[in-house]
Task: inverse folding
């Protein structure tokens, strides 16, 4: 039985001024598929994620989303003046999520003991984990990740890897950018590289 298609991009293009960043990019994400997105700095990887998430308008082509999409980007999209719990409670109300979910995610990401601390006091790694918790609030069928392991110490890296592995087994489709693909070995099911604004096949890291 074929896997459920969660997201499809067909001929996506995007320019910044006269400079083309994405040229005729096509890809699909199925349930339980984790695609690693590789490429040099400035290749357009972040732009592609933002287009797929609907935060940027494509200059050509189209994106078909068949499930809720979560994004973990360079911008954590959190409020420094609020506590970790208050941040998740705020976004929970936007998504219509039950009150129990924020604390469950804080616990799973190893942040429950800092739930009442303001995000402005958090380390880079803690903000990254809280950003992942925020993205998981609506139980997305598609998760777009821009360097998800950035700023994490060894223990936090293992926690996030475990969460991503659980999501994959649960059927979440993921597209993950990483400059250190070996950190996602054993989780990524395939890989592509973005270069010259176009996607090319690439080799996924082995566990």
Result:
């Amino acid at each position: 039985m074929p896997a459920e298609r969660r997201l499809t991009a067909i001929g996506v293009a995007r320019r910044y001024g006269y400079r083309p960043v994405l040229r005729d990019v096509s890809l699909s994400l199925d349930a339980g598929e984790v695609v690693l997105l590789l490429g040099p700095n400035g290749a357009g990887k972040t732009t592609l994620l933002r287009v797929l998430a609907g935060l940027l308008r494509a200059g050509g082509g189209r994106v078909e989303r068949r499930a809720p999409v979560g994004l973990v980007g360079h911008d954590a999209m959190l409020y420094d003046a609020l506590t970790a719990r208050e941040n998740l409670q705020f976004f929970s109300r936007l998504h219509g999520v039950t009150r129990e979910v924020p604390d469950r995610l804080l616990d799973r990401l190893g942040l429950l003991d800092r739930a009442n601390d303001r995000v402005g006091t958090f380390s880079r790694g803690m903000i990254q984990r809280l950003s992942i918790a925020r993205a998981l609030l609506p139980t997305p069928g598609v998760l777009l990740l821009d360097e998800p392991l950035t700023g994490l110490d060894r223990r936090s890296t293992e926690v996030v890897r475990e969460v991503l592995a659980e999501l994959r087994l649960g059927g979440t489709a993921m597209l993950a950018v990483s400059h250190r693909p070996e950190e996602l070995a054993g989780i990524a099911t395939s890989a592509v590289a973005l270069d010259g604004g176009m996607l090319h096949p690439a080799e996924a890291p082995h566990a």
In short: The mean pLDDT is 94. The chain has one domain: 31-57+68-202. The helical segments are 45-53, 84-95, 100-108, 124-136, 154-169.
